């Protein structure tokens, strides 16, 4: 069995895994919206002018704010899933708790899209 030597947060399981993925996805979705606003919209339309230092600093502050909202814990099953390297490891992770894997995956994905409105 592999161990995650870079782990810096506690693991969450079951319902806590779902809520952790939801919170993390929402924070990443909001940060993604800031990046899109900087890339696609001029400042007059609510975006950020990347050629203007003050506007770029505002954008960076928003990114830091949203990404610091990441939860204190990480989902154990999603961490195992993302660290899996072979199809056998992926299958073992999914089949160890298919409902937790599916609900955590859905929570993270859907909450990222909710930030788009």
Question: What does this entry look like structurally?
Answer:
The protein is mainly α and 117 residues long. It has one domain. Helix content is 66%, strand content 5%. It contains 5 helices and 2 strands; from the N terminus they run E-H-H-E-H-H-H. Strands 1-2 form a two-stranded parallel ribbon. The relative contact order is 0.22.
Main attributes of the structure:
117 residues, two-stranded parallel ribbon, mainly alpha
Topology summary:
Blueprint: E1 10-12, H1 14-40, H2 53-67, E2 73-75, H3 76-83, H4 87-96, H5 98-114
Parallel strand pairs: 1-2
Helix pairs in contact: 1-2, 1-5
| Backbone structural class | mainly alpha
Tell me the β content: 5-15%
Query: Would you report the number of β strands?
Result: 2
Distance between the termini: 41 Å
